């Protein structure tokens, strides 16, 4: 296992950034950000003679060290994954603890992955362009020259000039968020300077920017809380966004504080992004990015916010040192998210989330059957290997189940939650490895537990959980099935009916679903998909006629319906509808840019009609985020370079 980050060319173990000051101008006409990044760096060893930054697709215009121009900086050759190392010689060698300022003047370019500039037609309002970033896991180097590793935690401040309102993953200094939009100036015409400060150290992948015609509405915060919360969106989505999130967000954050300790970032805002955003959410500090697919109109999907705000402690607070230990972010966050579901709702809701996650985990493990190292929790990445290639539900759900197994082995939540609080308090603000986490777990129970609990920890097959591949978990897990049982029972009835050839004799009604919430309906569809034998085509036509899954506005349900029917004898009937839905050529009118939806649907379509799938992707490729474009092309066995050349 690499001690150093296998995805960074920087010399962060010798000298590391403490603070960055950004001075940026957003140029929508040329689709670039231009300006300076000034690093305050601290030497970690003696005799440091240069600083090496990660960059990717950046145009470096000049470098100053200590205020003096440097001519002999060097931009190294382009590595396909890691980009180009920027080597800056220092005028004097540094000793441990000494500091130096390095100012880099640069601009981004169109080839970078981190920034997506949207045309006005790709927005909800269709009047102004839009910009948003996605720096996780290693794309901050597309936005700025940085030591792009989560091992380095830094503070930052920024001054950003733009003709459209600007949001950053930091606290707004000016103009005030709750004042007139764009400081009362003309949006799209007048340039306004936005200033921000992030005083809490964060890893570089949490640098984030968004700019567009954005409005703000604040949420009511519980009495006594020092933080603020609200939602940002385009004006056309504000009513929907505020209604969807205003009831729950602040109370979810208050519940998380009760479990994990004080919220440290001062502001917890949500930003509802355009539909090309490739994830359900991104936990950028102070400003969680969320997909518009969460705007279900019934608050049924707001639990995603629980996951994202939980990252304030796991990932944003206690951080993994590099991609090999990514499960420390997502496994812990998913585990605690489910504990919060139990606290906020009921143990049955925790169980239902586990059931849904387990199905997604099995799918991910099966997907990586040909690449078994990606089935592991701790992945030994080769130097320069792309961590995006390993992105799946494995770190989330294998990690969460591992922690659930430890919780149960030690004696339940009453025993485990005090340890969780100690873990957070011990490593808040630090970046750690799996070994550091495990050592602390043992040390905590050696100090605060019993001999029996140490024996319990010793009984765990650590190697199987952390370092072994496989299509199943090392332990057969059991979950609370109170909410899953009604959904499973309805699915079983449908499966048992498959031998009935006369559809008119089937005893199903559209009201079958009335007592099932959105998550239970998802479990119902997943259960049907899990059977070895598909329902006959006639049954599925009747099924859709009763339940209208092929026209539901819920993306969570629609995508599960398509993954079910595209494996069935009715696949050819539904494949065109799936194609239209995933690229928005249907009644929804928007692409399904969230990779949770688009990647499985494209893969399922490809098995039914490869020509249709490829032509559909070619038609709409540029509507998807660059990360999604790359991974969909990979899924379909396409050369993205060739696709770009063909438009």
Q: What does this protein look like?
A:
With about 650 residues, this protein is α+β, with helices and mostly antiparallel strands. About 35% of the residues lie in helices and about 20% in strands. It is built from 20 helices and 22 strands. An eight-stranded mixed sheet has the order 5-4-8-2-1-11-14-13. Strands 16-17-18-20-19 form a five-stranded mixed sheet, with helices on one face. A four-stranded antiparallel sheet has the order 9-10-15-12, with no helix packed on it. Helix 3 packs across helix 4 (about 305-310), helix 4 (about 305-310) crosses helix 5 (about 325-345) and helix 17 runs parallel beside helix 19. The radius of gyration is 25 Å and the shape is globular. The mean pLDDT is about 95.
Globally, the shape reads globular
How many individual helices?
20
Query: Structural class of the helix and strand makeup?
Result: alpha+beta
How helical, in percent, are the residues?
25-40%
Strand content: 15-25%
Summarize the structure.
The chain is α+β, with helices and mostly antiparallel strands.
Break the fold down into its secondary structure elements and pairings.
Blueprint: E1 15-27, E2 32-43, E3 48-55, E4 58-65, E5 68-70, E6 74-75, E7 84-94, E8 99-108, E9 115-118, E10 130-133, H1 140-143, E11 153-162, E12 166-168, E13 171-174, E14 192-203, E15 209-211, E16 215-218, E17 228-233, H2 238-246, H3 249-260, E18 267-272, E19 281-282, E20 287-290, H4 303-310, E21 319-320, H5 327-344, H6 347-367, H7 394-410, H8 413-427, E22 431-432, H9 434-448, H10 451-458, H11 462-467, H12 484-496, H13 518-530, H14 537-547, H15 555-565, H16 571-583, H17 595-608, H18 610-620, H19 626-635, H20 640-645
Helix pairs in contact: 3-4, 4-5, 5-6, 5-7, 6-7, 6-13, 12-13, 13-15, 15-17, 16-17, 16-18, 17-18, 17-19
């Amino acid at each position: 296992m690499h001690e150093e980050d296998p995805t960074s060319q920087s010399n962060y173990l010798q000298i590391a950034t403490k603070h960055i000051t950004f001075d940026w101008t957003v140029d929508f006409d040329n689709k670039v950000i231009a300006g300076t990044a000034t690093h305050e760096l601290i030497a970690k060893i003696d005799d440091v003679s240069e600083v090496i930054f990660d960059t990717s697709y950046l145009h470096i215009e000049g470098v100053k060290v200590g205020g003096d121009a440097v001519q002999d900086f060097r931009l190294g050759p382009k590595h396909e994954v890691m980009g180009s190392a920027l080597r800056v010689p220092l005028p004097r060698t540094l000793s441990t603890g000494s500091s130096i300022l390095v100012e880099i003047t640069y601009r981004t370019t169109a080839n970078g992955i981190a920034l997506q500039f949207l045309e006005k037609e790709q927005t909800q309002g269709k009047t102004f362009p839009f910009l948003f970033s996605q720096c996780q896991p290693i794309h901050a180097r597309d936005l700025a020259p940085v030591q792009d590793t989560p091992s380095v935690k830094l503070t930052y401040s920024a001054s950003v000039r733009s003709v459209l309102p600007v949001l950053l993953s930091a606290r707004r200094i000016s103009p005030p968020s709750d004042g007139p939009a764009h400081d009362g100036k003309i949006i799209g015409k007048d340039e306004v300077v936005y200033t921000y400060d992030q005083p809490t150290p964060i890893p570089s992948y949490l640098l984030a920017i968004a700019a567009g015609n954005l409005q703000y509405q604040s949420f009511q915060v519980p009495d006594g809380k020092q933080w603020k919360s609200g939602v940002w969106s385009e004006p056309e989505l504000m009513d929907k966004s505020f209604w969807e999130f205003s009831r729950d967000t602040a109370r979810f954050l208050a519940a998380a504080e009760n479990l994990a300790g004080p919220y440290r970032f001062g502001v917890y805002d949500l930003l509802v992004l355009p539909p090309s955003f490739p994830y359900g959410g991104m936990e950028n500090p102070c400003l969680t990015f969320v997909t518009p697919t969460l705007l279900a109109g019934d608050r049924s999907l707001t639990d995603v916010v629980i996951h994202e705000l939980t990252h304030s402690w796991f990932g944003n607070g206690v951080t993994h040192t590099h991609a090999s230990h990514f499960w420390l972010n997502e496994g812990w966050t998913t585990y605690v998210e489910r504990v919060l579901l139990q606290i906020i709702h009921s143990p049955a809701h925790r169980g239902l989330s586990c059931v849904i996650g387990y199905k997604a985990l099995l799918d991910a493990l099966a997907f990586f059957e040909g690449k078994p190292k990606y089935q592991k929790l701790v992945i030994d990445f080769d130097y320069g290997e792309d961590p995006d290639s390993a992105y799946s539900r494995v770190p989330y759900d294998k990690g969460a189940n591992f922690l659930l197994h430890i919780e149960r082995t030690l004696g339940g939540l009453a025993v485990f939650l005090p340890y969780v609080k100690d873990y957070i308090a011990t490593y808040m603000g630090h970046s750690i490895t799996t070994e550091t986490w495990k050592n602390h777990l043992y040390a905590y129970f050696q100090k605060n537990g019993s001999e029996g609990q140490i024996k319990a920890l010793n009984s765990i097959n650590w190697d199987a959980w952390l370092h072994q591949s496989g299509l199943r978990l090392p332990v057969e897990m059991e979950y609370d099935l109170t909410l899953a049982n009604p959904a499973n029972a309805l699915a079983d009835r449908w499966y048992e009916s498959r031998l009935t050839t006369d559809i008119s004799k089937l005893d199903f009604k559209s009201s079958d679903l009335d007592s099932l919430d959105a998550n239970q309906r998802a479990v119902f569809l997943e259960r049907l998909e899990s059977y070895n034998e598909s329902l006959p085509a006639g049954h599925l036509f009747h099924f859709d006629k009763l339940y209208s899954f092929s026209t539901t506005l819920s993306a969570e349900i629609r995508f599960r319906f398509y993954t079910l029917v595209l494996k069935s004898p009715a696949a050819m009937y539904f494949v065109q509808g799936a194609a239209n839905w995933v690229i928005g050529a249907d009644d929804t009118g928007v692409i399904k840019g969230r990779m949770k939806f688009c990647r499985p649907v494209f893969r399922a379509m490809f098995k039914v009609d490869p020509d249709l799938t490829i032509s559909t992707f070619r038609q709409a490729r540029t509507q998807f985020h660059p990360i999604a474009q790359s991974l969909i092309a990979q899924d379909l066995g396409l050369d993205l370079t060739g696709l770009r050349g063909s438009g």
